[in-house]
Design a protein that fits this description.
This protein is mainly α. The chain has one domain. Helix content is 58%, strand content 7%. Strands 1-3-2 form a 3-stranded antiparallel β-sheet.
Length: 167
């Protein structure tokens, strides 16, 4: 992309991409939980949220603070699946998740090149830093010169908007 034709993806565009990615990740995680047999963990998590007695399907009372089924469910659906989704897709040839593709945004390094899987992983896990202190790391996208959140700065990444070409 020529340097004079670069547009940074703003906060609104990235919110739209995030909502689309959230919906897609929810569907993927739901199917994965079902096919990997993690629904027992989901059921037990709901019991914990409702402050009910947590029991196995056999009716046995679970007394641990975090039952293994719940921990496995959370690990797979909240950590592993989102990490692989973001890291694989953002380091791919398209340089974008499905939500970013829909919003016409791409993730690059500071020179405009495709990022590696390791850098995409760092960027993904750095989003937890952006969540700290009332999501201030995400709101930084509005105020920083290159529309970067804390996770973009930590991973040395930029997110560009690719306008549609009209010929």
């Amino acid at each position: 992309m020529p340097a004079d034709k670069l547009f940074y993806a703003g906060f609104g565009r990235r919110i739209i991409a995030g909502v689309i990615d959230g919906i897609i990740l929810t569907l993927i995680a739901g199917f994965a939980a079902y096919y990997l047999g993690l629904t027992e963990g989901w059921r037990m998590l709901l019991m914990m949220i409702r402050h009910e007695e947590v029991r196995t399907m056999d009716g046995i009372l679970v007394t641990t603070a975090l039952p293994g089924q719940v921990a496995t469910f959370l690990l797979v659906t909240c950590i592993i699946i989102p990490w692989l989704y973001y890291a694989i897709l953002e380091s791919s040839k398209n340089q974008a998740t499905l939500g970013k593709l829909a919003a016409r945004a791409v993730v690059t390094d500071l020179q405009g090149n495709r990022i590696t899987f390791a850098r995409a992983s760092l960027r993904h896990f750095s989003k937890f830093m952006s969540l700290l202190i009332f999501c201030s790391g995400f709101f930084a996208i509005i105020y920083t010169r290159h529309s970067q959140g804390f996770h973009d700065i930590i991973a040395a990444c930029l997110v560009y908007y690719r306008p549609e070409k009209v010929e």
